[in-house]
């Protein structure tokens, strides 16, 4: 049974129609539900283990389903998958470095790859108001002058705040920036795939290809040094070089990402007029 509790009545049923809608503080609702369920017993514990195992298996299936990727996130072509990028970043940073994540689909595995971090050494969101990442990284560097700061931005998200590179140079607050470049708004494509069941469709505006954006020139235009990497085996050296360059001024590494993200969400059952125009 789907229960949707929200303090805002307008939110209830806005995305998915619940079986029960409750205008209430979700924390109180959860406490009330737990009270009614009573203490856990063997049956509930077994059920919980089942759900955890099924979720882990589903996650593994999604990883393997990424086109061009095989087990363990390695690209069959030697290109850079999101999983490869995350592992390489985790190896390139120290526990004192500040990591700022606005990589969206490319950094789905970053939190796991990084492992536990001390408060104040990892900042992230998964896509609210795009463009937050780089300005946040520069601001963090200004308030932590001695700290190395590594920011990861999706190529789309970067367009909303790229000028912060200039601030980084002008304020002598250098940061390292990895651009996770998949030439488009991949999270939105994955959402459309979830909605329609099709990998591609006549969906305008999801790719940044014609023309593509010259990210190296863009970085240099704002006073940063800039390099590109498109092979997994070259990534560790490219990241070390990025961190070294970032000691002298804002530094950009454009990492071309291969593979596609598993579908996000599902069809809107019964929503009139949704499926045909999108498919
Ligand atoms: C200011 C703003 N505009 C638009 C959106 C809608 N939006 C959410 S994710 C996304 C795509 C992000 O693309 P990118 O940063 O390249 O990451 P990718 O999905 O390719 O991993 C867009 C356009 C938003 N969240 N915020
Ligand atoms: Mg993108």
Plain-language structure description:
38% of the residues lie in helices and 14% in strands. The protein contains eleven helices and eight strands. The protein is an alpha/beta fold and 279 residues long. It has two domains: 36 residues, no CATH class; 182 residues, Thiamin diphosphate (ThDP)-binding fold, Pyr/PP domains (Rossmann fold), CATH 3.40.50. The relative contact order is 0.13. Helix 5 runs parallel beside helix 7. Bound molecules: thiamine diphosphate and magnesium ion. The site of magnesium ion has 7 residues, from helix 6.
Look at the structure and name the CATH superfamily of the largest domain: Thiamin diphosphate (ThDP)-binding fold, Pyr/PP domains
Number of H- or I-type helical stretches:
11
Please tell me the CATH architecture of the largest domain by its name.
3-Layer(aba) Sandwich
Tally of separate domains: 2
Task: Give every kind of bound small molecule, once each.
Answer: thiamine diphosphate, magnesium ion
Indicate the structural class: alpha/beta
> What's the overall geometry?
globular
Order of helices and strands: EEHHHEHEHEHHEHHEHEH
Number-wise, the strands total 8
Proportion of residues in extended strands: 5-15%
Mean pLDDT: 89
Radius of gyration: 21 Å
Helix content range: 25-40%
Q: In angstroms, what separates the terminal alpha carbons?
A: 29 Å
Give the low-pLDDT segments: 66-72, 271-279
For the sheet with most strands, the description reads: 6 strands, parallel
CATH class category of the largest domain: Alpha Beta
